[in-house]
Amino acid sequence: MRENEPGGRRTMSTATVGKPRAGSALEVLWAFLKLGCTSFGGPVAHLGYFRAEFVARRRWVDEATYADIVALCQLLPGPASSQTGISLGLLRAGIPGALCAWLGFSGPSALALVLAGYGVSNFGGVAGAPWLHGLTIVAVAVVALAVWSMARTLAPDRPRATLAVAAAVLALAVPSTAGQIGAIVLGGVVGVLLSSPDSSPPAESAFHLPIGRGWALAALVLFLLLLFGLPPLAQASGNHALELLASFYRSGALVFGGGHVVLPLLQSSVVPPGWIGNDAFLAGYGAAQAVPGPLFTFAAYLGTVMTPAPNGWVGGLLCLVAIYLPSFLLLAGALPLWGALRRHPAMQRALRGINAAVVGLLLAALYQPVWTSAIAAAPDFILALAAFLLLAVWRAPPWLVVLFGAGAAEVMARLA
User: DSSP string spanning 103-145?
Assistant: First the structure.
């Protein structure tokens, strides 16, 4: 701490802000490991779990900083929820924290899918299980609570509330990545035009990162070199490991929207060359719906069941690292620049609008796909209300509500 600032105010040294504390990487690992074991419902629900754990409960970041991270990760290719988790780990404990956040959040589902790859026949029919439907119903409550809480903070007045609704309408009218990016761009433009120029700056310490501008630029250059250099290198060498690395790296680098959007790209990469049969591919997709955490860990299953070597757990690990490597490089390059840009007055005004647009995107996602895939009858709605009551009023931990939703759905199915 320095005490020689004008007016005698104590300010935190830039050199100390953002440095990991002793044991903080383990703290990040444990926090994300719990979420990795309990976060069902897809990327939108994951963002709700993250907000409940790291904004509301642990207070690692404030609401506005969290919305800024979500907005950036929505703009970047790759899995938005995993990238949000990696960013939170990076802000909390530096590069070790980013790695621990990814390992904790992705590890449980990756391990489950590797095991599924060793015994696909034991996972048949899981997609229609009543307890799995109960997990999707819990996701409705999680996302609804996130929308309600974020709206009160990020869209508290008429202009921003209207902007949030407009962003939701645009996202629903254009149900694609273009609609999501368009909503964020709309929010930024409207924020610059409507926000007052004297808006207070964001907390400066929130985006101090242990990554310099030079390293950020190097990460972006490496991202492009691997994207354009790996395919010809793999083709020239004929090495299957390099072919896997190139194929899964390209999938992680070029897909927008994350989650389910990556599946067609992966299918076209692994089925036509004969690396895996289409039946085995679809069986793995069914297993991926039954595990918590990000859907990108489906890559671990594909690497495990691959016909040519490397396969098994070695192939699963290779494919998992390859599909996530673009996210690490993009975040290392974009977050330091994002942190600097967001302190400019015009960017601060734009971020007010972007934050409101993020609320709108979550509102749109609450309807499609979360609500439409989960609520089909009155009993589903009743269970969703009960889960929301437990989360919002009784402050029950999300993992307990997940167990409640799965068990209640199973009981309801047996009584029907």
Answer: HHHHHHHHHHHHHHHH-GGGGTTGGG-HHHHHHHHHHHHHHHH
DSSP string, 304-332: HH-SSSS-HHHHHHHHHHHHHHHHHHHHH
Nearest to 340 by CA among 190, 162, 217: 217
Amino acid at 273: P
60-69 average pLDDT score: 86
Amino acid at 214: G
Q: With the C-alpha atoms ordered 375, 377, 383, 388, is the resulting torsion angle positive or negative?
A: positive
Which tokens in the block code for residue 215?
A: 């390293």
CA distance 5 to 204: 16
- Helix and strand element counts for the chain (H, E): 17, 0
Angle between helices 213-237 and 240-254 (to 10 degrees): 130
Q: What pTM was computed for the model? A: 0.74
C-alpha of 373 from chain center: 19
> pLDDT for 298-312, tens place per residue?
999 999 988 888 888
Measured distance CA(103)–CA(113) in Å, rounded:
15
Q: Report how far Cα 104 is from the mean position of its chain's Cα atoms.
A: 13
**Interacting residues of 279 by C-beta distance below 8 A, sequence separation 6+:** none
State the Cα–Cα distance between residues 239 and 233, nearest whole angstrom: 9
Residues 36 and 109 sit within 8 Å (Cβ to Cβ): yes
- Alpha carbon 333 to its chain centroid, in Å, reads 18
> Residue 16 has what DSSP assignment?
T
Judge whether 120 and 280 are in contact, CB under 8 Å: yes
**pLDDT at residue 260, rounded to an integer:** 61
